[in-house]
Amino acid sequence: MFSFPNPVNEVAARVVAAGVVLLSVVTIAADLPWLTAVIAYGFLARVAAGPRFSPLGLLATRVIAPRLGEPKPVPGPPKRFAQAMGAAMSLAALVLVIVGATTAAYIVLGGLAAAAFLEAAFALCLGCKIFALGMRLGLVPEEVCAECNDIWARAGAA
Predict the structure, then answer these.
(1) Highest taxon of the source (predicted)?
(2) Backbone phi, psi, residue 9, to 5°
(3) DSSP code of 100?
(4) Which portions of the chain are predicted below pLDDT 50?
(5) With b meaning 16 or more CB within 10 Å and e meaning fewer, what string describes 123-149?
(6) What is residue 146's predicted lDDT score, i.e. its pLDDT?
(7) Paired residues of 9 in beta bridges
(8) Domains of the chain by residue range
(9) Which residues, including other chains, have CB under 8 Å from residue 33's CB and lie 6 or more apart?
(10) Judging by beta carbons within 10 Å of its beta carbon (0-12, 13-18, 19+), is residue 117 exposed, middle or buried?
(11) How far apart are the first and last CA of the chain?
(12) Largest Cα–Cα distance of the chain, in whole Å?
């Protein structure tokens, strides 16, 4: 029940990222700080169990992504790490909202929206890039993502 998919459909991941952008922009533009809790819940749910308990994850994987063409499988561990980074940022924003620092919370959400936009629009996953750096530096054991090793070995050989 509490596991993360591997592989992940990159199409669905990009749809989720677009949803995060939308929710973050609405939160900031409409000055609805309570939506920060919704964003944080979504990230925590996706880190814990993939899309299983995330309304946005379910919408992306079961409704939208299947209508956008063939799935594009990518390794799951880097995507989970990226979701964990989103969880940390959205929880930080939520804490800021709770203590009354709404402007600071919106700045954090703006950074989160920017990172999610890069994923949604260009398939540029900043969390995945940091995960790759962690593997290259030996901070992430190779067995965490054997597929990643194969992908990066092929990319280095090209």
Answers:
(1) Bacteria
(2) -80, 110
(3) T
(4) 157-158
(5) eebebbebbbeebeeeebeeebbeebe
(6) 82
(7) 73
(8) 8-157
(9) 27, 97, 102, 105, 106
(10) middle
(11) 39
(12) 51
CA dihedral 89, 94, 95, 98 (to 10 degrees): 160
pLDDT confidence of residue 151: 59
The two three-digit tokens of residue 71, written as one number: 């799935």
Angle between helix 102-122 and helix 10-29 axes, rounded to 10 deg: 150
**Amino acid letter, 158:** A
Number of neighbouring beta carbons within 10 Å of residue 12: 26
Buried-state track 49-86, b at ≥16 Cβ within 10 A, e below 16: bbbbbbebbbbbbeebbeeeeeebebbbbbbbbbbbbb
Tokens representing residue 89 in the block: 């940022």
Q: Tokens in use for 32?
A: 């609805």
